Amino acid sequence: MLEKFKRLSTLNKVLTIGVAAIVLFFAYAIFSPDDNTTAPNAAKNQTAPAKTTTQTEQKDTGTQTTQTDTSWQSEENQQADKAKNGFNKVTYSDGSYYEGNFVNGKKQGKGTFVSAKGNMSVGDFVDNQITGQEEVAYKNGDFYEGRMVRGMREGSGKYTFASGEYYDGMWSADKRHGYGVNYYTNGNVYEGYYVNGLRQDTQGKLTYSNGVVYQGEFNNDKMTGQATKYYSDGIYRGSFVDGKRAGYGQYQWESGSVYDGYWENDKMNGQGTFYNGNTGVTDFGTWQDGVLVTRG
C-alpha cells in the first residue's frame, strides 16, 4: 500500500491526503460522544426527575419520612362512601359511630348509632335517620322505647327518666303530645292530654300519692280552671288557680257540713255561706283565711 502511494504523482498524493482528512473529520463528528455525559461532573449537572412525593428531612435522626400527596383521595373516598352496601361499621370525625346496614352509603335498615354525646340508638334507619320502633339509651341515664321518625320521638312511646319518673303515651316532634300517663317520683300520677309537652286537658286527672284526686282543667301544665277535687274528708267543686282553690266553689265535708262561696289561696275568703252539719247552724258573711269575720 505504501509502495503504491510512493509511485503517485505529487498532485495525486495531495488529493489522497485531502480526501483522507475529510473522511476522518466526518467520522469524528458522527461518532464522538456528548461532552455533558463524558465530563467528570456531568452527573452533578443533570436535572433530577420530578418527584411524585414530598420528602421531609428529619435532621436529628438522619431519617426521611415520605408524605404522599393524597388530596385526590377525598372525592374517591366520597364515592366509596356512596358505594357502601350491606353491613358496615363507620366511625365519624366527631367520635360518633354507626354499626349496621347501609344502602348506597346511607344508613338504611337495622343498626346502632352512638352519638358524640354518648347517646345510643338501636333500631331501624331510613335515609340516615332513625325511623321506626326504637330503643334509645341516653348518656344521662334516661331511656326511650317507642316510635321515632327521622330521629325524633313520634307516636306511641315510653320515656323513663334516670330519676325513676316515666311517661307512657303519645309523642310529636320529640315532645309529649296527645294522651298519656305520667308517673312521678313522688308517687303522683297524671292521666290526660298533653300539647307540645305541657299538660292541657279539660278533664285531666292527677292522683296524689296520699289518695287525693284532682280532675278537671289543666292549662299550660297548671291545674287552673274548673275542676273537682276529692280530699280525704270531702269534695270540692269549683274554680282553681295553679292547683289551689280560688274563685267560686263549694266544699262538701263527709260530716255533712257545706261551704258555698268564694276562695283564695286554698282557703275560704270573701262572701260565703257555711252550713254546719253537726249543729245545723248556718253562718253567712265575709270570710278571711277560713274564719268568719263579718256576719250578714
List the helices and strands and how they pair.
Blueprint: H1 2-7, H2 10-31, H3 35-38, H4 42-45, E1 53-58, E2 63-68, H5 73-82, E3 86-91, E4 97-103, E5 106-114, E6 120-126, E7 129-130, E8 132-137, E9 143-149, E10 152-160, E11 166-172, E12 175-183, E13 189-195, E14 198-199, E15 201-207, E16 213-218, E17 225-230, E18 234-241, E19 244-253, E20 258-264, E21 267-275, E22 282-288, E23 291-295
Antiparallel strand pairs: 1-2, 3-4, 4-5, 5-6, 6-7, 6-8, 8-9, 9-10, 10-11, 11-12, 12-13, 13-14, 13-15, 15-16, 16-17, 17-18, 18-19, 19-20, 20-21, 21-22, 22-23
Can you characterise this structure?
The chain has about 300 residues and is α+β, with helices and mostly antiparallel strands. The protein has a domain at about 80-160: Single Sheet (Histone H3 K4-specific methyltransferase SET7/9 N-terminal domain), CATH 2.20.110.10. It has helices spanning about 1-5, 10-30, 35-40, 40-45, 75-80; strands at about 55-60, 65-70, 85-90, 95-105, 105-115, 120-125, 130, 130-135, 145-150, 150-160, 165-170, 175-185, 190-195, 200, 200-205, 215-220, 225-230, 235-240, 245-255, 260-265, 265-275, 280-290, 290-295. It is rod-shaped, with a radius of gyration of 49 Å. The N and C termini lie far apart (about 170 Å). Mean pLDDT is about 80; it is low at about 35-75.
